[in-house]
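Sorry to interrupt, but I need a hand with the structure work. Leave the record below and I will have a look:
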Amino acid sequence: MPTDTTLPPLDPFAGVPDKRYEVKAADLLKPGTGGLLRWRRQATNAPIVQVEDAYITGTFDLRAADLNFLFRFERCRFEHPPDVREATLLGLVFRRCWLPGLKARNLRSRNDVRLIRSVVEVAPDDHEAEETTTIQRGDDRERGMPNAAINFTDAVIDGSVVLTRTTIRHPQGKAIQGDRLVVTGALLAYRMVAKGEVRLPGMRAGGNVNFSGATLDNPDGFALNGNGLHIGGSLLCEVDNYGPPSERERFTAKGILYLPSATVDSDIVLREARLTVDQKGPVVVDAWKSGDPYLDPRPALVADRLKVDGNLELSDGLRAFGTLRMVNARIGGSLRLAGAEITMVRGESAPFYDRALHLDGSTIGGDVEATNLRVPVGQLRLADVTVGGNFLAWNSMFLHPGRDVFSARRAKISGNLQLTDATLKGTLRLQGVEVGGSVNLFGTVLTEPGLRTSSSFSLDIRTARIGRDLVLTENKDRPFRAEGGVNLDGAQIARRLDLHGAQLSSLSQHGIALDASDVTADEFILSPAEPPVGSVRLRRAHCGSLADNEAIWAASDGIQLEDFRYDALKHGIALDDDRALDHRIALLRKAMRGYRPGPYDQLAATLRAAGNEEHASTVALRKQQFRYEALSKGFKVFGPGVRAWSWLQRSMVGYGFRPVRALGWLFTLLVLGSLWFGLGSDDCVQDTDRYAVSGSRCLVNHDDTGLQWNPVIYTADLLVPIVDFGNKSRWYMHGVDNWVSAGFTASGWILATTVAAGVSRMLRRET
């Protein structure tokens, strides 16, 4: 240190100091008296070289030296970057120092290397600074030499690297270059400020790498390049809470956090971090200009093939302006996005490149916690993701109107998918997902769906396999609402499909409010809060129990029910409640907007299985009535005849489902005929020469004088076809009686024909 001990402590950050503080670097390195031994603390015999309050001129050059000393500089300013390349030292400490750079390539330190509250600043117009930081120039620089303010390339530190509150400025190049750096301890960079790239590819750290409260500023490139690094502890890039609350410092990165193929044995924590990438700035990697739609050219975080044994926390106030890309990552614990906000610039033309979160092919061993996650602009893409726990995203907001806002095709979630009380603009696409528990979307609002040529659904969950329930219901005063409709085509739900209190509508281009074709579940609860705007499709769907309300049957564009099967009605129809049955039949007919036999057969089968045979027959009867009505509309000429035949069958035998009516008609006709023929008389009784007379009627043949007139038997003989009781051809009838008898004969034939038709229909039904 300077020999004048009366000097005040040096402020190394105030520019070039007074000459009285000057110490020549060569003097520090001379052997013998005045050299290293001069600065050695003899009192404790410790191998420490302590230099304080000095302006060190010349180059402090320990290149390739092998010294068993720890060099400690405090409040020192260096004229040129210290050079410890290929050196082997006991340790190296700079506290509150100013350096124009540090050359430590291939350094071997048996203890910590520390730069605490120091400033490392490269002067861009200083030729010597350029040389010492090896800025490449084609005329006089060795090709491949690094351009870095601090160069730790291939260094081995048998301790920790401490950069707490140090500022490193080299915006034209790299602030830190630590390719293949090996640190047996931790790398601690609390509140470090780096202007330029922090480059640490292939680094190996035995403990934590802690950038909490740090600011990494390299807006046109990588803020942190950790390609392939391996951290034995945690990677911490979060808020630094040291000091009073007003002095809390968040981790801030202007530029890309580049961590592909990184391995972290514990956690990665970016709580309350600020990540920003210039969305209109230069693209860093040329390959990203390829036009590949699966690339993300402006990411805030790139962590493809990342492996984390613990949790990955991008949560609790994290703000990211740029894509968080973690394709094919492996996360042993949970992925936490709770309380974060991720936003993008909306793409104007395909392939858009506006994904906010990109997790394709990743595996998360625990939960995905995304409660209160905010995505004001951008898509969340989670195709082929595997989640070992739950996906929890209640009270979230995802806005990407007119496009897919959340796409998780073929994702596999062992627990529940909980996306409740959320607000989404765009399409929620869950096609082919496999969920071991339930999919809960109660209280979620889906508006402004993505528009495609074939469909425009707000929720697309086709061919999904759900281990328990699919819940699309209201939550307190907040309904589930899908502005573009819900597509469940081919979904398999183990227990319950619940639409209680839902609001379903559709866009005019396609007009489908609910497509539940081929869906299977133990229970359907189809009771929306209001009639769906659009059509409802239940073709080939099957459930064990059906609960519904009038609103579902009043869909504005009707319901398609071909081969829709349900085993029971949750709220059955009582045996004596004919009004309820009539109401259901009316709803069914109105919803189908035309004759379809299957839904009536299904309702009849359900009632019959419940022991309600009478109501089942009523449904079958009404089905036949509607059938003949549909047939009559199809015949222009024979339509009235079809309607008359239908009326006869319905009134006489109820299309075979009311056979007792035939007995009633037979008895009525028998009574009427008996009264007519019994109370009437014939003028022929006056002509005894021509006719044999019995009572008030005449026999046709004189030989039948033994036959007694009986109007009841005569009427019965007229009514019963084929069988002849020997009366109708033996009594003389003329005038009105002749026409009446012919009418009774015709009525008998009609009655017999309708009975035969009804019986044959019943036999076909039973077989």
